[in-house]
Amino acid sequence: xxxxxxxxxxxxxxxxxxxxxxxxxxxxxxxxxxxxxxxxxxxxxxxxxxxxxxxxxxxxxxxxxxxxxxxxxxxxxxxxxxxxxxxxxxxxxxxxxxxxxxxxxxxxxxxxxxxxxxxxxxxxxxxxxxxxxxxxxxxxxxxxxxxxxxxxxxxxxxxxxxxxxxxxxxxxxxxxxxxxxxxxxxxxxxxxxxxxxxxxxxxxxxxxxxxxxxxxxxxxxxxxxxxxxxxxxxxxxxxxxxxxxxxxxxxxxxxxxxxxxxxxxxxxxxxxxxxxxxxxxxxxxxxxxxxxxxxxxxxxxxxxxxxxxxxxxxxxxxxxxxxxxxxxxxxxxxxxxxxxxxxxxxxxxxxxxxxxxxxxxxxxxxxxxxxxxxxxxxxxxxxxxxxxxxxxxxxxxxxxxxxxxxxxxxxxxxxxxxxxxxxxxxxxxxxxxxxxxxxxxxxxxxxxxxxxxxxxxxxxxxxxxxxxxxxxxxxxxxxxxxxxxxxxxxxxxxxxxxxxxxxxxxxxxxxxxxxxxxxxxxxxxxxxxxxxxxxxxxxxxxxxxxxxxxxxxxxxxxxxxxxxxxxxxxxxxxxxxxxxxxxxxxxxxxxxxxxxxxxxxxxxxxxxxxxxxxxxxxxxxxxxxxxxxxxxxxxxxxxxxxxxxxxxxxxxxxxxxxxxxxxxxxxxxxxxxxxxxxxxxxxxxxxxxxxxxxxxxxxxxxxx
Length: 704
Prior knowledge:
Layout: H1 8-12, E1 20-21, E2 28-32, H2 41-53, E3 60-64, H3 81-108, E4 115-118, E5 121-124, E6 127-132, H4 133-136, H5 170-174, E7 190-195, E8 203-207, H6 209-216, E9 221-225, E10 228-233, H7 236-246, E11 250-253, E12 274-279, E13 289-297, E14 309-315, E15 318-323, H8 328-339, E16 346-350, H9 362-375, E17 381-384, H10 387-393, E18 400-408, E19 414-423, H11 436-439, E20 473-480, H12 496-514, H13 518-524, H14 529-541, E21 554-562, E22 569-578, E23 582-592, H15 599-618, E24 624-625, E25 628-629, E26 647-652, H16 668-683, E27 689-690, H17 694-703
Parallel strand pairs: 2-3, 7-17, 13-27, 15-16, 19-20, 23-26
Antiparallel strand pairs: 1-2, 4-5, 5-6, 7-10, 8-11, 9-10, 12-20, 13-18, 14-15, 14-17, 18-19, 21-22, 22-23, 24-25
Helix pairs in contact: 2-3, 6-7, 12-16, 15-16
């Protein structure tokens, strides 16, 4: 008989004491490598632990993202926290529960089947035994490894999972406690701003320190290490003023101009690329009806509500870094490589920060703080990026062009499908270098290798490029553009949004060519029952009607996907109006995410994805000019306003599965496609390039 298989994170961190402890009477400590970045994951993790251990939620204290305390679970990303991390924690808790029941049976002298647990107390045949987790803790060793033999609870026995539990992190944030990394204060702390190297390899030609000091209107000092230059002082106002002025008083060599044409996805089509093909071979014959279309999206910024921040202290040969980065262990490893330290000489601790949607500036600002701290041993250093710095220097989501072509059979269905994708990398996270501050050091690490997220991990540019529909032959041709005008990396959903936008727009175009209703057409060649379930459910929610006339200025559209083709299923219908601009009126969303741990938290995630996707589709694109990014504030990089958010309805399709499916990024692609299809319905003409700006709408209207 084969040994039980452990969930991935538990395989990598099998020691039970890495997950659970009983530190004092009535308290349970839970450890997770996943971190809170606004998605409510710590609340859901606490619910999972409380459920599986049979203790009240109030007894749970959870530690997360600390290289000294918690398991290494890589990055909190890709909608994987509950799908993988939560499942691992559940199994670990089940193993701990089984160990304590076995110890209680031995101590009491009874069969373990006679025992149960209620709020940590051991019951024998339903009555108190006088034993609990804490009386037995000294006799139960959690130093051993998980076996996979412990049985998890049945869904029918759940009393905490599936309930709307109040978010653990919100009270401090709502009532103004020091909840965010920006609020941290350490004794003797110095404030710092970095004079940013315009591009890798640029060197400082001159620094007018006198002019910068005059702008500061307060005492500041300069810390320079190679081409890394920082301004440091005890008064943050003076340091901030000096940092803002420094751009005009530092001259750099080796800076190149950028053409505004490079901000458009069409620029990618003529660039050198690393090519590969996945899927069926190209068809040899022709002659069938064909359809082809190209869809594009420009670079996107993270546009977090607050800029990145970090603190660091180098004392007695040990570096401690406080960060809101998504991966404390990968960041520790990259800092060790960049700074010439052993990983064990670095502690990285997660502290909550502003909204995080991927690889933003959090890792870079942590490196800034670490570099400065090592030049000032014994002094805690706090670095906060300025808004303009965040927009200009954080990694961006790459521009993408997606060309879809299909051969159409006699039923009007695609029988052969090709998605051809041009994109820069979606994968430049720490772990493979790529820290801005380190690139300015005297001996910078080599540039990261040109690569993207492997298909086995969901893909980067190819994420969701394989349609879930029943198509006889499908292939993806991926053109990875190794050299892009700005640094690119992961942003929520990676390539899923533009790929789903392309696929679902193309499906709508095929439905129109076939003279069929878009909902009915999808169901004709989609056999996955869970996929059909969300499409049919959202159509009922929205009271979808076939045959509504196009070109009236009011439209409805649908979009669907299964995130990564292995996580949550979501279908979205959007109703909107179009004249010179687009006004979203109402959105309906149906999702099958398997086991729902906290329904309210899950809805928040789906709603957030809908709103952010709407902002991407209607407004957002990074602008390039001069030596880099020119969209460096909220005027030049507008996002959706509260007044523009439509009414949103979300319902879950019931699932019998006891496995949670990742849903944090599940609605971005379907929402983008639904908006695009609704705009096409409203105008009677299609716009295939994002964002759907006023200029593009007017051009389409004038062309009719």
